[in-house]
Amino acid sequence: MKYPEPISKLIDSYMMLPGIGRKTATRMAFFTLGMEKDQVQEFADNLISAKTDLKSCKICGNITTEEICPICSDKSRDQSTILVVEQAKDIMSLDDMNGYNGLYHVLGGVLSPVDGIGPEDLNIKLLLNRLKQNQAVKELIIATNATPEGEATAQYLAKLVKPAGIKVTRLAHGLAVGSDIEYADEMTLKSAVLGRREI
Amino acid sequence: MFVKELKLQNYRNYESLDVNFSPAINVFLGENAQGKTNLLEAMYFLALTRSHRTSNDKDLIKWGSEFARISGTVIKDNSSRLKLDLVISKSGKKAKLNNLEQRKLSSYIGNLNVVLFSPEDLSIVKGNPGIRRKFIDMEFGQMSAQYLKTMSQFRSVLKQRNAYLKKLQHHQAKDMIYLDVLSDQFSAYCAEVVFSRLQFLQKLQTHIEKIHANITEDNEKLKIVYNTFFSTDGKSLENIYDTFKDNFKKNYQREIQRGVTLFGPHRDDIKFLVNEKNVQDFGSQGQQRSVALSLKLAEVELIKDQVGDYPILLLDDVLSELDHKRQTHLLSSIKKGIQTFITTTSIDDVDPELVKDPNILNITNGKVQQEEI
């Protein structure tokens, strides 16, 4: 039997979300039917609002409701370091740790010719202009993921920025905090040994 | 190690099968096209998640079924049991170790080691370089999960570099700094792959030389040589990395023109020298056959060295192909207590002197029957 059109359309919509298959989507759709009308209205409004009211920050590319995001406008932050991330959501993880008080820059992805993403598709120009205009920046910390693509993107940025005399660093890879050496795979161990530090 | 039990579901011409094996010699006896080789293939697939006959996994699913399942119970030398499970469906395959799903196949492969002897082994010596590369990658892969991981990253970096060279070729990109970055990164993976291949080949060499001398009654000295665009003799990992890096720098224009990566392990080859002569070009058919046999026998010993236990042997229709002398050499390996599976149409092909008390399984049309002794 086929579902009536309104619900089958709703199921199709839920299926657009990552990690949601038909069964889960159907469950979600029927759950939605059982919700209060104003709850559903709020849900729909939130979807629209996330798409229309959010912009990307003119300086760093982070998501924000203003022209300039709260991090960039916060003058109490350390203006001499910029931490470069792939996605805006990475900022949330990094800023919640309370171990970094500098600025951020969102690339919006990593270089990947296979997916047709080249330097011009990322916020790289924005970053270079930012460095040119703001001479206070002394260090660029690159926090792209530890994938081959993330690594190549980091190397690329380093090659562009280093000639300007800015220190470029990369997040350490290796043993996870609280983990046992016994359970680490060979590649992780290798990068942990390569990235060792003096104590 | 040995396979104690094999279960199949919707696999090739087997709708459902549950069979127990002897830890010594098992003979699959039956007419042609009854499913003897399918059983060997199932065990090969259970070990390596790839078939030696087809590159399309869907071929393994019984006609009209949605999925195929292969499971096996393996007993390791310390008598621990390991349950391997593979489900092949149209959307891919899932692997389980002791009922625990493995996210990456590289953590699954290598738990059951197999060496297959088949009439097609000759093509490793005679055939094109691609066959030899596939052979070394498969075999080194089942000995080292690290090698499998490096290979898979190597392939993804190669893909990226090729995609970018294509863009440069079609003038859709012009950033040479990015090509530098990709080339340096690729060089590091090339060096890693070439270096591990050299290490494995060196170990293989010590075994193959001895075995081949034995087979040829000391008439032939067999040497395996890794063949790339530079001499790898005595080179360290750093040396190899630098050689690749410099070489790419020199050949940017050529590579951009062709839009593809022209150097690297994906283009390398191995050569078999018998008494200093390349057996592929100068060897007789008989010599080539002996080299192929020595190679497989050396692999058996190398696996024993690397993983600490002998692999299981799968002999696909080879006994009728080998003369008595070579058969003796092959079967003398079995004497070491290695679990062996032999397919044959007639038990007469198997020398009763060499194969004692085999567990004979009659195969008819996807059904297996244990012979009463």
TrEMBL record, chain A:
Question: In this record, what's one Pfam family?
Answer: RecR_ZnF
Q: Where are the zinc fingers (C4-type)?
A: 57-72
Gene3D superfamilies, A to Z? 3.30.60.80, 3.40.1360.10, 6.10.250.240, RecR Domain 1
Which InterPro entries does the record match to this protein? DNA_Rcmb_RecR, Rcmb_RecR, Rcmb_RecR_Znf, TOPRIM_dom, TOPRIM_RecR
Determine the domain of life of the protein's source.
Bacteria
The UniProt record lists the keyword Cytoplasm: no
Does the keyword field hold ATP-binding?
no
Q: Please name the SMART domains in this protein's record.
A: TOPRIM
Question: Known CDD domains for this protein?
Answer: TOPRIM_recR
Q: Which GO terms describe its molecular function?
A: DNA binding; zinc ion binding
According to the entry, every stretch annotated as the Toprim domain falls at 80-176
**Among the record's GO biological process terms, what is one?**
DNA recombination
HAMAP family registered for this protein in UniProt: RecR
Query: Per its UniProt record, what PANTHER family does this chain match?
Result: RECOMBINATION PROTEIN RECR
Q: Which family does it belong to?
A: Belongs to the RecR family.
Query: What does this gene product do?
Result: May play a role in DNA repair. It seems to be involved in an RecBC-independent recombinational process of DNA repair. It may act with RecF and RecO.
This protein is called Recombination protein RecR
Automatic annotation (TrEMBL), chain B:
- The RecF/RecN/SMC N-terminal domain covers which part of the protein? 2-345
Q: Among its keywords, does the record have Manganese?
A: no
Grouped into one coarse class, the protein's main location is: cytoplasm
User: Where do the annotations place ATP binding?
Assistant: G30, E31, N32, A33, Q34, G35, K36, T37
Q: Which UniProt keywords apply?
A: ATP-binding, Cytoplasm, DNA damage, DNA repair, DNA replication, DNA-binding, Nucleotide-binding, SOS response
The record's GO CC annotations read: cytoplasm
What is the annotated localization of this protein? Cytoplasm
Does Metal-binding show up as a keyword for this record? Answer: no
Listed InterPro entries: DNA-binding_RecF (IPR001238), DNA-binding_RecF_CS (IPR018078), P-loop_NTPase (IPR027417), RecF/RecN/SMC_N (IPR003395), RecF_2 (IPR042174)
Instruction: Enumerate the Gene Ontology biological process terms.
Output: DNA replication; DNA synthesis involved in DNA repair; double-strand break repair; SOS response
Molecular function (GO) terms listed? ATP binding; single-stranded DNA binding
Q: Which family does it belong to?
A: Belongs to the RecF family.
Summarize the protein's role: The RecF protein is involved in DNA metabolism; it is required for DNA replication and normal SOS inducibility. RecF binds preferentially to single-stranded, linear DNA. It also seems to bind ATP.
Protein name, entry field: DNA replication and repair protein RecF
Origin organism of this chain?
A: Companilactobacillus crustorum
